[in-house]
Amino acid sequence: MPFETDIKARPARQHGAMEYSEPPVDLDAVRLERLDRIRTELKRRGLPAALFLDQINTRYATDATNMQIWCSHYEARSVFVAAEGPCILFDYANLPHLAEDLPTIDEYRAMPTFYYFTAGSRAEERAALFADQIADLMARHGGGDRRLAIDRLSALGCAALAAKGVEVVEGESVAEQARAVKSPQELALMRAAIAACEEACTDMWRAFEPGITENALWAKLHEANIRLGGEWIETRLLSAGPRTNPWFRECSMRRIEKGEVMSFDTDLIGPYGYCADISRAWLCGGGAPSAEQADLMARAQAQIEHNIAILKPGKTFREVSMEAFDVGEDFLSNRYPSLIHGIGFADEWPSIKHAQDFDAKGYDGVLVPGMTLCVESYIGREGGKEGVKLEEQVLITESGVERLSTLPLGFAMA
């Protein structure tokens, strides 16, 4: 089903959670710019086309949404992007109203799904139907090149494409590199997501009293995010007292006690699909922190401030790693997995490792203006009672770095 792509005579159409609201920028302009970045990356690599099944990448390429979390479980939706040709959405079922007026989509098709739940013993047959369509698109728009960049696809899908003469090549990096630099329009949408996230955090603070369960406090973040047009939250990383050390315990039915540290990481997909990824640690019930708690917070703040201060365009990932804050021997074993990571529609490239991990796990690259990053800190002694988790979202500018998140870093909101 071909789609009309002339957008001059109509305003940008919103879909999903922010429908009936007033966007801060021209949505069609940002949509087309994102799609162009994917095509530019394909051309830079000499690749004729990409097929995206990761719902973050399908969203980036088209801005079409359809049960994003559900479709992340299954190969139910995909987007074919030709470097010199159409962008075709293969949607879950035949629901073209979900993509009406999106200028990124040249053609709409229902995807012949072949995941086991829906296809059962007919999975190979269904996969062949999908491969037939993709092979035909490659024949028409590949210029004789049969290489197709794919971000993720099951063995069944890859085998079906290979049987049709399509060569599957790695495609996750195509999308990650395209997504790495944000336009001013994207930044406006990200700021809207951060504003919603920080309002949701304020609701959490108002409810943060001794006796509330971790789950009930986390629910305040969820409720406000949905109410303000956000979409989902990727994790449940909130814990208090002894559950804060080591990190990565998700929230539970445990009641938070007076005088305990409560740490959380939002991982929030907010309005327009952009991620607001900030972390804070608060002290339950007011009062002064203990000497140990004050030391944890001071170290975490020092790590955040130091690592933000060393960021600037032109700096390599290795340089950032080697110049980063030294957390100290007592805290090294519990260090957060990355110092800094990219952020956009979700966590994304790059992931900058600690100096101790760089040779074994790290990779190099260069910071450039327009990158949005999250600067991480987790400070908790090995065998210690509590830990403090902090995280700030920042933008690499032409001259240095700009903070995008604004909530106070201390044990209280004021």
From TrEMBL:
Domain of life: Bacteria
Key words of the record: Aminopeptidase, Hydrolase, Protease
Organism lineage: Bacteria, Pseudomonadati, Pseudomonadota, Alphaproteobacteria, Rhodospirillales
MF (Gene Ontology): aminopeptidase activity
Alphabetized PANTHER family for the sequence: AMINOPEPTIDASE, XAA-PRO AMINOPEPTIDASE P-RELATED
Family annotation (InterPro entries): Creatin/AminoP/Spt16_N, Creatinase/aminopeptidase-like, Creatinase_N, Pept_M24, Peptidase_M24B
Bilayer-crossing regions: none
CDD domains tied to this protein: APP_MetAP
Protein name: Aminopeptidase P family protein
